[in-house]
Amino acid sequence: MTLAARGGNRGPAAAADNRRALLRAARELFADKGYNVPLSAIAREAGVGQGVLYRHFPSRLDLAFAVFEENFAELTALAEDEAPDAFERVVARMVELMVESVGFVELVVGARGVVTDYQGDRQLAEILTGPLERARAAGLTAPDIGVEAVALALRMIYGVATTARDDDQRRADVAAALSLVTTRWRP
User: Fold this and answer.
1) Which domains, from first to last, does the chain contain?
2) Predicted TM-score of the model (pTM)
3) Alpha carbon of 87 to those of 17, 78, 105, 129: distances in Å?
4) Closest C-alpha to 174, from 111, 61, 117, 91
5) What is the pLDDT of residues 88-145, one digit of tens each?
């Protein structure tokens, strides 16, 4: 097979596409197989070599945090919606992400003590602040509910998610916990 027939090596021009493919593959495989899925499987699923994976993400933790940052970007975009009900949608998506990847979230939560410059808690507060203020102003959320209470509720729901016996039980238990919490949030 000639080089032209194989498509050739695009080198640095492929870097952004490779990074996106690696993040997509990591998200899917972390959710499906857990955080300890072989990195070679992620590279294979992304259609790149392991050297490309390590060039973008020197460690498994770097890759995990990059996927987690994509979650924050998605949540930030949701939070920018000016609609009063954006708060409920942001929280619902946070919970969905939590349920989709319990083990993965567990890793990131545990890594907070290892990564000294971790800013996830601050990012979470920034994401929630605007939508929560709009929900309170519209009378959709009780005036005494603050970002700290929401973060605590999310941690409690996370605890419910991590202690479930299986996926079906996890979804049912998380839905029940979310219902209890959101009932308390309403005026």
Assistant:
1) 1-58 (1.10.10.60), 59-187 (1.10.357.10)
2) 0.77
3) 33, 9, 21, 9
4) 91
5) 999 999 999 888 877 666 666 666 667 667 777 788 899 999 999 999 999 999 999 9
